Amino acid sequence: MLGLIGKVLITLSFLSATASLFLYYQGAKNDDDSKLKIGNWLFGLKGLFLTAASAVLVYLLFTHQFQYYYVFNYTSLDLQAKYLWSAFYGGQEGSFMLWILFSWLFGFGLMRWTRAPYKAPVLFFLALTQVFLLSMILGWDLGFLKLGASPFRTIAEEMPNAPFIQANPDFIPNDGTGLNDLLKSPWMMIHPPILFVGFSMMTIPYCFAMAALWKRKYNEWVGPALPWTLSANVSLLTAIFLGGYWAYVTLSFGGFWAWDPVENASLVPWLIGTAGIHTMIIQRKSSVAQKSSILFAILAYVAIVYETFLTRSGILADASVHSFVDLGLYNQLLAFMLVITGVGLGMFFWRYKELPSQEKESQILSREFMTFTGAIMLLILGLVIILGTSSPIIGLLFNDNPTPPEISFYNQWSMPIAMIMAVLTVIGQYLFWKKYNWESLSSALVYPLLVTSACTILTMIVGEVRDPYYVLYIFTAFFAVVGNAWVMIRLIIQKPKLIGGSVTHVGFGVLLIGILISSAYNKPMIDQTTAAYNERVKNGEVKDEMGFTITEPVTMLNLELKEPKIVNGKYVVTYVGYDLVNQNRPGQQTYKVLFEPIDGGKPFYMYPELYPMLATSTQDNVQWSVDPDVRTGLISDIYLYVAGSSYVKQRNDIIARRANINTTATPEGEVPETQTIRFSKGETVVVGGFEMQFIDYAMEDTTALPPNTNIGVRAQVKLAHLASDQQYMLEPLFALYNEDGDTYVFAPEVELPNHDITFSFTKVYPESGEIDLTITGLDEEYQDEWILIVAEEKPLISVVWLGTFLLMIGFSVSILRHWDRERKKNKD
Amino acid sequence: MNLKLIFGVAAIIGFTSLLMYNFGESISTYTNFEDAAEMNSAHVAGVWDDTQDYGFSMENKLFTFYMKDEEGETRRVVYPKPKPNNFEQADRLVVIGEMRGETFYASDMLMKCPSKYNDADPSKFVNASES
User: Considering only CB atoms, which chain A residues are within 8 Å of B89?
Assistant: First the structure.
């Protein structure tokens, strides 16, 4: 019922969006204000319907109505409220809804602050994108055409051929499959919304550029478009940063960037948007670059739609092997992309002849030329990344079954481009505020260049940077930092409101330094034996059992419980033990690893975690997931995760043994070991990683025991698991009973939680007061407690974050400045 | 002016060809174990053969498993890193490395998971070393 209401609401939302589109069109075409007003009402109405639909979806999620596929697929009964909330945008359909909602809210900003003649056409293009986005979640089946995938479809609609649906069409599962454990993270609550804020804001420069083309007013639009573009930029940057940080600290990606298609999907629009900001700024200042401002504004949004198409249509998947949950949106996404691109570029080329062009060529040493070249560099970098991400399509030119490019492809191209950009930022910033010729510029740059050289040489010595290419890169990066800081300091004294640009460019230089050092000088933490082994691997001296030369060095560290190892000549590292924690994630182990710096620094602990993935684990197949620990430092981070442990191995062995017993009728060989230990009262014995103490025994009341029982004794045994410091108290029973004149021993097994070991109290020696305890499942040999960790020293990650923050601050200062100017204009 | 235009066009063509050449070099083609024997660095796609033994050996720090390629050929694969997080979940594996005799030595492994991890991107490849 509610699902039907939801579907109707989305349909109404779609219809009012379409109606507002027509009215905006007429309003824009005839400059008809009354049409525009009705359009605005319909625009508002559309959002209200969608808000109501979202509320229904959230309600369904919170009330666990698992007959709906979306609810079933992304949530479960035990999900915490905050993650039920984030499940709203956890799937494709919900994320479309969130995207449209943000875009709708910004629409009100446009109604309020946009001036004629842009107002109506800007809203027209905004409405156009919303009609397309809304069509993705319609869920209409027109017979010949399926339009969109509704978030409100039921399980029966999703899987009509599933046997349980055939048997019972009203089948409602008891529980959902649950949100993936990796998404149960606080980052999940903020990263996607900020990303969609960025996506929807990046629509606005596109709308302005299109309005400019429509109304043939090619200059004034950049004023109001600039603060929006800058804001879109900051949002995307924040989202990229949050995503990178999330990947680094909890998803164990091993770093903050992996050139993954999804990451690229947010980076490319940011780069092109930033290129647009550059040309808009010089257009506003000097009335040049109208063509490129319009083009970049169009391309930034086209990049968003194209990357949306790539990541959501399934085209990146290799169709031959794969059948994912395909929402069947391929054609719709393709149409969306083609219309946005076709209308955008079509209008651009249609008006191309009448677009203002510069009468006189800019000199090379002018702010216009430098800024424009910088923008082109940003565009080229964006295009290179698009090319790499599009390998499943463009790679077809080279072979039939193309793989993604190697990571080195991205690195090889982005490094030189970044170096050129770094140099351009300084020259551009100098020229931005003052005219120079070659001579005066050279003399102005003498001191910055001296400082840059000093910094570079210092880095070479301290950081042992020897690779000449890296040295050159570091030099250009320092040049960007120092040169722009020079400009910034001068501006702080003269016009502090205008420092946005120079702060941004300093941040860019800082970011470049951080990126290179943290990725190129990343060092695995290994002990001396492994280091010696790796040295032999490097020299090609190690052969495997087949006689082949081993080429891969070992980057893991094996630690035995309480046996310190010297790592990288810097730390004494000890595995101290683990705790079993059952609070947030049932079955989670928190390992304790002690680091003692050899140079006498303060010792510290790291707490990596391992836990069973609930969403995908079953009784017979537990899948372990890692949660790394990162120790953040100014100079260098330590990144560490547990790749395996004796505990996990034991658990897996137990599971395998159970599975064996279930499948094979006669378990062969795999009989659990049994041993009997004789204890005297108060004695402590250490066996198989446990410390056992027989404290006392007490007579059991025979009335509580089965009939015919003559005597019942209960022993109290205290157990301490050495590795995890867990304490257990067991009270196994020993009883004698008569049957048909014979005496039998009754010694039921007591199971030890988490360990699959059973204890039974099998004998009493009345004369000495000793007892026999029979233990099953405990290996007679003492099983060493160990962990296998992967640890890395990552230098200057902090500098990456610093650079990112400086970029955010710089852009934000610029937003304030441009917004301030626009607001004053609006008042006039 | 004309000279500038020619220069610009030449620069664009030069840049584009270099880029495309490099791009072509850096992508490879998915192949099978048999053809991989003749290649230095091969991308072999396939599925995990869960009927045979697999696991990480503490002695030589290698993760060993059997993989069936798209032709149905099964080979032993060794991977010099710990078993990736969601290895068992992956419904498709891509190993990158070379054949040595009857064993494939992977230097890298990509897993494609039925992605509930990120439904917005069902095609996402998760790098084994990243997960």
Answer: 616, 623
Average pLDDT, whole number, for chain A?
86
The first and second tokens of residue A635, run together, are 């100079």
Contacts 24+ apart (CB under 8 A), A527-531: A527/A557, A527/A565, A527/A566, A527/A567, A528/A566, A528/A569, A530/A554, A530/A556, A530/A557, A531/A568
* Chain B residues whose beta carbon lies within 8 Å of the beta carbon of residue A544: 60
Residues 54-93 of B with CB under 8 A from A: 56, 58, 60-61, 70, 80-83, 85-86, 88-89, 91-92
Residue B80 burial by Cβ neighbours in a 10 Å radius (0-12, 13-18, 19+): buried
How many angstroms away from the CA of B44 is the closest CA of chain A? 10
Among B94, B121, B124, B125, the residue to mutate for chain A (most A Cβ within 10 A)? B121
Topology of the domain covering B29-130: OB fold (Dihydrolipoamide Acetyltransferase, E2P) (2.40.50)
Residue A625 burial (CB count, 10 A): 23
Residue with structure tokens 């996402």? B124
Q: CA of A592: how far to CAs of A283, A637, A792, in Å?
A: 58, 18, 17
Name the pTM for this structure: 0.85
- Structure token pair of residue A695: 């404290």
Side-chain half-sphere exposure of A724, counting CA atoms within 13 A? 17
Q: How crowded is residue A723: how many other Cβ atoms within 10 Å of its Cβ?
A: 25
Residues 4-23 of B with CB under 8 A from A: 15, 19, 22-23
pLDDT tens column, A165-199: 777 777 788 888 777 777 777 888 899 899 999 99
Residue A615 binned pLDDT confidence (cut-offs 50, 70, 90): low
Q: A571's torsion region: left (phi>0), alpha (psi -120 to 50) or beta? A: beta
How does residue A253 score in pLDDT terms, banded at 50, 70 and 90?
Answer: low
**Hey, what are A280's tokens?**
């808009």
B63 vs B54: CA distance, rounded Å: 8
Each domain of chain A, given as residue ranges in start order, spans 1-181, 185-368+377-405, 412-521+799-828, 528-651, 674-776
Interchain CB distance below 8 Å, A262 and B61: no
Nearest to A403 among B15, B28, B88 (CB): B28
For A494, counting Cβ atoms within 10 Å of its Cβ (0-12 exposed, 13-18 middle, 19+ buried), the class is exposed
Give the contacts of B26 (CB within 8 A, at least 6 positions apart). A405, A406, A408, A409
Selected residue of B61, B78, B108, B110 to mutate for chain A interface (largest A Cβ count, 10 A): B61
Q: What is the DSSP string of A751-765?
A: EETTTTEEEEEEEEE
Residue A671 DSSP one-character state:
P
What does residue A757 show for φ and ψ, rounded to 5 degrees? -120, 140
**Within a 10 A sphere around the Cβ of A8, how many other Cβ atoms?**
15
Nearest CA in chain A to B80: A552
Distance CA A707, CA A637 (A): 66
Tokens, residue A701:
């009341």
Which residues in chain A have their CB less than 8 angstroms from residue B112's CB? 317, 322
Q: Do B120 and A406 touch (CB under 8 A)?
A: no
| Chain A residue with minimum CA distance to B20 | A387
The 8-class DSSP code of residue A784 comes to P
Work out the minimum CA distance from B65 to partner chain A, whole angstroms.
16
Helix H, strand E, coil C: the string for A441-485 is HHHHCHHHHHHHHHHHHHHHHHCCCCCHHHHHHHHHHHHHHHHHH
CA-to-CA separations, A527 to A532, A533, A791, B59, B82, in angstroms, rounded: 9, 10, 11, 15, 17
In this prediction, the residues of chain B whose per-residue pLDDT falls under 50 are: 115-131
Q: Which among A177, A253, A404 has the least Cβ separation from residue B27? A: A404
